[in-house]
Please model this.
Amino acid sequence: MTEKDLAIMSTTTPSKVEFLQYNQDVMEIGIYEIEVEQTITSSKIDQQLQPFTCKMTFVVSGERFGPLSPSDIYAVFPPQDSLGEHHYVVPHITLKRSTLPWERFPGTSDEELPWLVLLLLRETDFDNEQDKPKLQSLTLKDLLATPDTIKFPQITLELGGQHEQEAVTVIDVKKKYLQPVLPTKADLAYLAHARQPKDAEGNPQGEQLATLGKLDGC
Model:
């Protein structure tokens, strides 16, 4: 290794990594309204002019129904088709957009908890071939018309591109298989974190990433 190689390593290798409990965007997903008013006054104007006003509404939208694209994913563990003693390591997926797990709420208010979770379903978890979940593609309209015997979170379509003909990918999992692996609300705080590499002076260096993991037993 040459002196030049050592110099490159010293400037690109982070000295430490800071782990963050959560990493939220400045603006939450939702509908916003801006109103601006301008009033002109002058000693040369006798009468009071009407103020000039302008109002604008805009939407901050984000991921909700669509599957993650390969460009969203930094890495997964275990890697696809890999062999090894993986049962000693927590399965996890690392995302390039470090705010993604916290861009929505798992409930109705901001509690700094992730809305995304990683579930691990194995072929050996199911009693027979018919019980194994299979990917299905359908529209939101069809999903909302699902019989009450099938449970899923309530959905209210938002402004900003969501519509009933939007295609979504779903799986049907029987309650007896799903309930043991679903995390509780108390588990959510432990299922995701963000991390930021830093140099020796504490300055951010490199990409900030987010990781979703699976707790043992859920």
